[in-house]
Amino acid sequence: MSYFGLPYIHAVFDVTAWLASMTVFWWTTRHLIPAEALPANRVAHPGLYAVTAGAGALCGAMFFGTANALLSGLHALGFSMVGGIAGAIAAVEAFKRFTGVKGSTGIVFAAPFAATVAVGRLGCFFSGLADFTYGTPTGVPWAVDFGDGIGRHPVQLYESLAMAAIFVVLIQRFIARDRFWLKNGFYLTVGWYGLQRFVWEFFKPYATLAGPFNLFHLVCLALVLYAGVMIRRGSRACTTA
User: Fold this and answer.
1) Phi/psi of residue 144, each to 5°?
2) 50-105 residue pLDDT tens
3) Could you give the angle at which helices 215-240 and 81-99 cross, rounded to 10 degrees?
4) Dihedral of the alpha carbons of 42, 45, 47, 51, in degrees to the nearest 10
5) 172: buried, middle or exposed (CB in 10 Å: 19+, 13-18, 0-12)?
6) Mean pLDDT, the chain, integer
7) How open is the CA angle 206-129-19, to the nearest 5 degrees?
8) Closest CA to 61 of 127, 14, 26, 108
9) Which is nearest to 66 in space by CA: 6, 132, 124?
10) Bigger pLDDT: 222 or 236?
11) Domain ranges in the chain?
Protein backbone atom coordinates (compact mmCIF):
# COMPACT_ATOMS: atom_id res chain seq x y z
CA MET A 1 0.00 0.00 0.00
CA SER A 2 1.30 3.45 -0.93
CA TYR A 3 1.14 6.23 1.62
CA PHE A 4 1.43 8.89 -1.08
CA GLY A 5 -1.26 10.53 -3.16
CA LEU A 6 -4.18 9.50 -0.96
CA PRO A 7 -7.42 11.41 -1.70
CA TYR A 8 -7.69 14.75 0.11
CA ILE A 9 -4.44 14.16 2.02
CA HIS A 10 -3.11 17.60 1.13
CA ALA A 11 -6.36 19.24 2.23
CA VAL A 12 -6.21 17.41 5.56
CA PHE A 13 -2.74 18.75 6.27
CA ASP A 14 -3.70 22.21 5.00
CA VAL A 15 -6.50 22.36 7.56
CA THR A 16 -4.20 20.97 10.25
CA ALA A 17 -1.58 23.60 9.39
CA TRP A 18 -4.20 26.35 9.59
CA LEU A 19 -5.40 25.10 12.98
CA ALA A 20 -1.81 24.89 14.22
CA SER A 21 -1.17 28.43 13.03
CA MET A 22 -4.27 29.81 14.75
CA THR A 23 -3.45 27.96 17.97
CA VAL A 24 0.11 29.26 18.01
CA PHE A 25 -1.09 32.78 17.21
CA TRP A 26 -3.56 32.69 20.11
CA TRP A 27 -1.01 31.27 22.55
CA THR A 28 1.88 33.57 21.67
CA THR A 29 -0.17 36.78 21.52
CA ARG A 30 -1.78 36.11 24.90
CA HIS A 31 1.09 34.64 26.85
CA LEU A 32 4.47 35.32 25.21
CA ILE A 33 4.48 38.54 23.18
CA PRO A 34 4.15 41.94 24.92
CA ALA A 35 0.92 43.80 24.18
CA GLU A 36 2.78 46.80 22.76
CA ALA A 37 4.18 44.60 19.98
CA LEU A 38 0.76 43.50 18.73
CA PRO A 39 -0.30 45.05 15.39
CA ALA A 40 -3.73 45.85 16.83
CA ASN A 41 -2.00 48.22 19.25
CA ARG A 42 0.45 49.67 16.73
CA VAL A 43 -1.55 50.38 13.57
CA ALA A 44 -4.50 52.73 13.17
CA HIS A 45 -6.54 50.34 11.04
CA PRO A 46 -5.80 46.74 12.14
CA GLY A 47 -8.64 45.33 10.05
CA LEU A 48 -7.31 46.93 6.87
CA TYR A 49 -3.82 45.80 7.87
CA ALA A 50 -5.00 42.18 8.06
CA VAL A 51 -6.86 42.39 4.74
CA THR A 52 -3.81 43.93 3.08
CA ALA A 53 -1.54 41.17 4.36
CA GLY A 54 -3.97 38.46 3.27
CA ALA A 55 -4.49 39.94 -0.19
CA GLY A 56 -0.75 40.31 -0.68
CA ALA A 57 -0.15 36.73 0.40
CA LEU A 58 -2.80 35.37 -1.98
CA CYS A 59 -1.58 37.41 -4.94
CA GLY A 60 2.06 36.52 -4.29
CA ALA A 61 1.29 32.83 -3.85
CA MET A 62 -0.68 32.65 -7.09
CA PHE A 63 1.66 34.82 -9.15
CA PHE A 64 4.93 33.10 -8.27
CA GLY A 65 3.42 29.63 -8.03
CA THR A 66 1.82 29.88 -11.45
CA ALA A 67 4.87 31.56 -13.00
CA ASN A 68 7.14 28.77 -11.76
CA ALA A 69 4.75 26.12 -13.07
CA LEU A 70 4.61 27.75 -16.51
CA LEU A 71 8.38 28.11 -16.65
CA SER A 72 8.67 24.42 -15.79
CA GLY A 73 6.29 23.39 -18.56
CA LEU A 74 3.13 22.93 -16.51
CA HIS A 75 0.07 24.84 -17.68
CA ALA A 76 -1.69 24.97 -14.35
CA LEU A 77 -2.59 27.40 -11.59
CA GLY A 78 0.05 27.24 -8.89
CA PHE A 79 0.35 28.36 -5.30
CA SER A 80 3.67 29.01 -3.61
CA MET A 81 4.43 29.49 0.07
CA VAL A 82 7.53 31.53 -0.68
CA GLY A 83 5.53 33.66 -3.09
CA GLY A 84 2.86 34.12 -0.46
CA ILE A 85 5.23 35.41 2.21
CA ALA A 86 6.92 37.70 -0.33
CA GLY A 87 3.57 39.09 -1.42
CA ALA A 88 2.41 39.62 2.15
CA ILE A 89 5.62 41.45 3.04
CA ALA A 90 5.41 43.71 0.00
CA ALA A 91 1.78 44.57 0.74
CA VAL A 92 2.34 45.23 4.45
CA GLU A 93 5.44 47.34 3.87
CA ALA A 94 3.45 49.46 1.41
CA PHE A 95 0.63 49.74 3.96
CA LYS A 96 3.07 50.84 6.66
CA ARG A 97 4.62 53.45 4.40
CA PHE A 98 1.25 54.95 3.46
CA THR A 99 -0.02 54.96 7.05
CA GLY A 100 3.21 56.10 8.72
CA VAL A 101 3.82 52.98 10.82
CA LYS A 102 7.44 52.56 11.91
CA GLY A 103 9.27 49.41 12.94
CA SER A 104 8.31 45.75 12.71
CA THR A 105 4.69 44.67 13.07
CA GLY A 106 5.24 41.04 12.11
CA ILE A 107 6.46 39.43 15.32
CA VAL A 108 3.02 37.94 16.00
CA PHE A 109 3.19 36.08 12.69
CA ALA A 110 6.68 34.59 13.08
CA ALA A 111 5.83 31.49 15.11
CA PRO A 112 2.48 30.87 13.35
CA PHE A 113 4.22 31.05 9.97
CA ALA A 114 6.90 28.60 11.08
CA ALA A 115 4.22 26.23 12.37
CA THR A 116 2.24 26.53 9.14
CA VAL A 117 5.19 25.55 6.99
CA ALA A 118 6.35 22.78 9.33
CA VAL A 119 2.92 21.12 9.26
CA GLY A 120 1.83 22.08 5.76
CA ARG A 121 4.90 20.62 4.08
CA LEU A 122 3.89 17.22 5.42
CA GLY A 123 0.83 17.50 3.19
CA CYS A 124 3.09 18.20 0.23
CA PHE A 125 5.19 15.16 1.16
CA PHE A 126 2.28 12.74 1.42
CA SER A 127 0.71 14.11 -1.77
CA GLY A 128 3.64 12.59 -3.63
CA LEU A 129 4.33 13.32 -7.28
CA ALA A 130 1.02 15.06 -7.92
CA ASP A 131 2.04 18.07 -5.82
CA PHE A 132 5.15 18.96 -7.88
CA THR A 133 7.11 19.77 -4.72
CA TYR A 134 9.15 16.56 -4.71
CA GLY A 135 12.92 16.46 -4.94
CA THR A 136 15.30 15.38 -7.65
CA PRO A 137 16.51 11.76 -7.95
CA THR A 138 19.24 10.78 -5.49
CA GLY A 139 20.99 7.75 -4.08
CA VAL A 140 21.19 8.96 -0.47
CA PRO A 141 20.06 6.39 2.14
CA TRP A 142 17.01 8.47 3.09
CA ALA A 143 15.75 8.84 -0.50
CA VAL A 144 11.99 8.38 -0.85
CA ASP A 145 10.18 6.53 -3.63
CA PHE A 146 6.91 8.37 -4.25
CA GLY A 147 5.55 5.54 -6.35
CA ASP A 148 7.45 5.75 -9.62
CA GLY A 149 10.36 3.56 -8.56
CA ILE A 150 12.78 6.50 -8.29
CA GLY A 151 14.39 7.54 -5.01
CA ARG A 152 14.15 11.30 -4.52
CA HIS A 153 15.24 13.92 -2.02
CA PRO A 154 12.37 14.40 0.48
CA VAL A 155 12.75 18.17 0.24
CA GLN A 156 9.34 18.65 1.83
CA LEU A 157 10.66 17.03 5.01
CA TYR A 158 13.86 19.07 4.86
CA GLU A 159 11.81 22.24 4.88
CA SER A 160 9.41 20.97 7.52
CA LEU A 161 12.25 20.13 9.90
CA ALA A 162 14.04 23.42 9.24
CA MET A 163 10.94 25.45 10.08
CA ALA A 164 10.16 23.29 13.10
CA ALA A 165 13.65 24.16 14.35
CA ILE A 166 13.12 27.92 14.02
CA PHE A 167 9.73 27.51 15.69
CA VAL A 168 11.39 25.95 18.74
CA VAL A 169 13.99 28.72 18.85
CA LEU A 170 11.30 31.40 18.60
CA ILE A 171 9.31 29.96 21.48
CA GLN A 172 12.42 29.64 23.63
CA ARG A 173 13.41 33.26 22.93
CA PHE A 174 9.88 34.51 23.59
CA ILE A 175 9.74 32.71 26.92
CA ALA A 176 13.12 34.20 27.83
CA ARG A 177 11.78 37.68 26.89
CA ASP A 178 14.77 38.14 24.60
CA ARG A 179 14.50 41.76 23.44
CA PHE A 180 16.46 41.19 20.25
CA TRP A 181 14.20 38.33 19.17
CA LEU A 182 11.04 40.14 20.23
CA LYS A 183 12.11 43.04 18.03
CA ASN A 184 13.55 41.10 15.10
CA GLY A 185 11.93 37.68 15.36
CA PHE A 186 9.86 38.14 12.23
CA TYR A 187 12.86 39.23 10.16
CA LEU A 188 14.96 36.38 11.55
CA THR A 189 12.22 33.90 10.67
CA VAL A 190 11.86 35.29 7.15
CA GLY A 191 15.63 35.26 6.68
CA TRP A 192 15.90 31.67 7.90
CA TYR A 193 12.99 30.62 5.71
CA GLY A 194 14.55 32.23 2.66
CA LEU A 195 17.98 30.75 3.39
CA GLN A 196 16.88 27.17 3.96
CA ARG A 197 14.43 27.28 1.06
CA PHE A 198 17.19 28.63 -1.20
CA VAL A 199 19.25 25.52 -0.43
CA TRP A 200 16.40 23.05 -0.99
CA GLU A 201 15.60 24.62 -4.37
CA PHE A 202 18.77 23.05 -5.75
CA PHE A 203 17.11 19.67 -5.17
CA LYS A 204 13.88 20.42 -7.04
CA PRO A 205 13.06 19.76 -10.72
CA TYR A 206 12.10 23.33 -11.60
CA ALA A 207 13.21 25.21 -14.69
CA THR A 208 16.13 27.59 -14.12
CA LEU A 209 16.28 31.26 -15.04
CA ALA A 210 19.92 32.19 -14.49
CA GLY A 211 22.58 29.51 -14.29
CA PRO A 212 21.49 26.98 -11.66
CA PHE A 213 18.93 29.34 -10.11
CA ASN A 214 15.18 29.00 -10.56
CA LEU A 215 12.49 31.61 -9.91
CA PHE A 216 12.14 30.64 -6.26
CA HIS A 217 15.89 31.01 -5.74
CA LEU A 218 15.55 34.66 -6.69
CA VAL A 219 12.56 35.19 -4.40
CA CYS A 220 14.44 33.54 -1.54
CA LEU A 221 17.43 35.81 -2.09
CA ALA A 222 15.11 38.81 -1.95
CA LEU A 223 13.67 37.58 1.36
CA VAL A 224 17.11 37.09 2.89
CA LEU A 225 18.19 40.54 1.70
CA TYR A 226 15.00 42.09 3.08
CA ALA A 227 15.53 40.46 6.47
CA GLY A 228 19.14 41.59 6.68
CA VAL A 229 18.35 45.17 5.67
CA MET A 230 15.49 45.48 8.15
CA ILE A 231 17.51 44.08 11.06
CA ARG A 232 20.40 46.39 10.25
CA ARG A 233 18.07 49.36 9.89
CA GLY A 234 16.55 48.63 13.27
CA SER A 235 19.92 48.33 14.98
CA ARG A 236 21.12 51.61 13.45
CA ALA A 237 17.96 53.35 14.61
CA CYS A 238 18.63 52.20 18.17
CA THR A 239 22.25 53.35 17.95
CA THR A 240 21.34 56.85 16.79
CA ALA A 241 18.34 57.25 19.09
Assistant:
1) -120, 135
2) 999 999 999 999 999 999 999 999 988 999 999 999 999 999 999 999 999 988 89
3) 40
4) -100
5) exposed
6) 93
7) 100
8) 14
9) 132
10) 222
11) 9-240
CA 3 to chain centre: 25
Taking each helix axis from N to C end, the angle separating 179-200 and 155-175, rounded to the nearest 10 degrees, works out to: 170
Is 219:82 a contact under the CB 8 Å cutoff? yes
93 vs 102: CA distance, rounded Å = 10
Give pairs for 138-147: CB < 8 Å, separation 24+: 138/203, 146/4, 146/5, 147/2, 147/4, 147/5
In one-letter notation, the amino acid at residue 32 is L
Residues 231 and 180: their CA atoms lie apart, in Å, by: 10
How many angstroms from the chain centroid is the CA of residue 132? 17
CB atoms near residue 98 (< 10 Å):
9
Q: Which residues pair with 181 in a beta bridge?
A: none
Phi-psi region of 28 (alpha: psi -120 to 50; beta: other; left: phi over 0): alpha
CA distance 193 to 84: 12
